[in-house]
Design brief:
Hypothetical Protein Aq_1857, Chain: A, single chain, 5-stranded mixed β-sheet, 3-stranded mixed β-sheet
């Protein structure tokens, strides 16, 4: 089996929230920083409204939304598949889902054996769509 393993996937619940946010805000992007507190949660922004840096890594896309992580998070999870999910509750952040009474979270699954050889490649560097 030679199927590519995506580094980032999403639950149906997360995809429903993404779709709702896309209808209201247009194209979106996610960033998961190496910070503390809510900085460790995935943040959802309008595309180009968050400035990624030279060391940020594009893990992949979920429903046409680019998903970036900081280098420090990538170093920890480079052998994992992340799953974007959503839970009830309000985070203390500027992420677009917060007014809906939910917050995005990630869960990780450690990859094994040939899965590691089939991981999709990553792109290092800033988002090309930065607006400001």
């Amino acid at each position: 089996m030679n199927d590519i393993i995506k580094r980032i996937v999403a639950t149906e619940k997360a995809k429903e929230i993404i779709n709702r946010l896309q209808q209201e805000h247009g194209k979106l992007m996610f960033h998961l920083s190496g910070g503390c507190c809510d900085g460790s949660s995935p943040m959802c922004f309008g595309f180009g409204e968050f400035r990624t840096g030279d060391g940020d890594i594009l893990l992949g896309e979920i429903d046409n939304c680019q998903f970036y992580v900081s280098q420090s998070h990538f170093d920890i999870w480079k052998s994992s598949q992340l799953t974007l999910d959503v839970v009830k509750g309000r985070g203390a952040s500027f992420s677009l889902e917060i007014p809906l009474g939910v917050r995005f979270i990630v869960r990780s699954r450690l990859l094994q054996g040939d899965e590691l050889e089939r991981l999709e490649p990553v792109v290092v560097g800033p988002c090309e769509g930065y607006k400001f």
